[in-house]
Amino acid sequence: MSAQVLSADPLWPRAGGWPALDRDGADLALIGIPTHETSLSPTGAHATPAAVRDALRRYSAHAAGLEVEALRFADAGDVASPDGPEGRERARAAVAATVSASRLTVAVGGDNSLTVPAALGAAGDALGTAGLITLDAHHDLRDGTSNGSPVRELLEAGLDGRRIVQIGIADFANSAAYGRRAAEHGITVIPRDVLHMRPLEDVMAEALEIAGAAGGPIHVDLDVDVCDRSVAPGCPASVPGGLAAWELRRLARLVAASTHVRSVDIAEVDATADTPDQRTVRLAALLILESAAGLASR
Q: What average pLDDT does the segment 262-291 reach?
């Protein structure tokens, strides 16, 4: 099937198609980390960064009341073969270089294993004071190395669990053992049901305060399977009853508005399993733009 030709309008400039990241740097830099080889379920998530870049062209960079279009955008390309020890090191180094050249780095996966090199690369020598916020239906505290283990791996690398906040944890998608593991490490868990009762602004303010308590950089994992399956069918582990698309978009904008947030990753979207209307991939593209809107509001 041939690609759809998008209309051109000089008064409606499209997002995406950003220049390569160079020595002049950028406000927001995009980097692809197409991890997929250790996923607990078969996935074509390695195809997602390219699909998200295509989807960006369907949108503008305009957000009412914000100077998003004035931001300098850049694309650092994709990390080649980011799975395995050598691939992870390449990804970590690539993220570190991108973070040093931008105000906000957005890493697009790939499955959730990309969160390990993304967070480590962004934190650099400041891991001891760094924080982590996850928007995820799952604790990701499994043993081994997979898309179900990034939070446990970051704890073992030296991230303090007392500065980890997990938002959107879903019932019937985790286990008592991993719930206890989260509690033992001092992780703050804000279940999905709590989001029905609290304003999103209050939830994110609390998360930012906890994750940034030591004054270090904060990495944010936007695992799209936190969303309801109706809006994220391209996420193998999304469940009915998850977040609405607008909720995740709002949370992405709120978190990116914090000056402590240096990096964001977008994970668990399998472009090859999405619906014909590409609703999951398009949501991932909009999360990049919501992050840009948050950055513009700083």
A: 98
Closest CA to 122 of 144, 145, 90, 97: 97
Query: Cα 297 vs. chain centroid, distance in angstroms?
Result: 19
Q: Which residues pair with 220 in a beta bridge?
A: 133, 264
For 14-28, what is each residue's pLDDT tens digit?
999 999 999 999 999
State pLDDT tens for residues 58-79.
Answer: 999 999 999 999 999 999 999 9
SS3 86: helix
Q: Report the distance separating Cα 215 and Cα 259, nearest Å.
A: 11
What pLDDT is recorded for position 1?
37
3-state secondary structure of 245: helix
> Per residue in 125-161, is it b (16+ CB within 10 Å) or e — as a string?
eebebbbbbbbbbbbbbbeebbbbbbbbbbbeeebbb
Q: Where do the domains of the chain lie, and which CATH numbers do they carry?
A: 26-296 (3.40.800.10)
Q: How many residues does the chain have?
A: 298
- Token look-up 């100077």 returns 67
Cβ atoms of 5 and 234 closer than 8 Å: no
- Dist. CA 154–CA 119, nearest whole Å: 8
Distance, CA of 243 to chain centre: 15
Question: Per the structure block, which two tokens stand in for 295?
Answer: 């950055």
In angstroms, the CA 233 to CA 145 distance is: 25
How much is the pTM?
0.97
Q: Report residue 207 as tokens.
A: 């998360």
Determine the Cα–Cα distance for residues 177 and 271; give it in Å rounded to an integer: 32
Q: Which pair of structure tokens corresponds to residue 130?
A: 């760094």
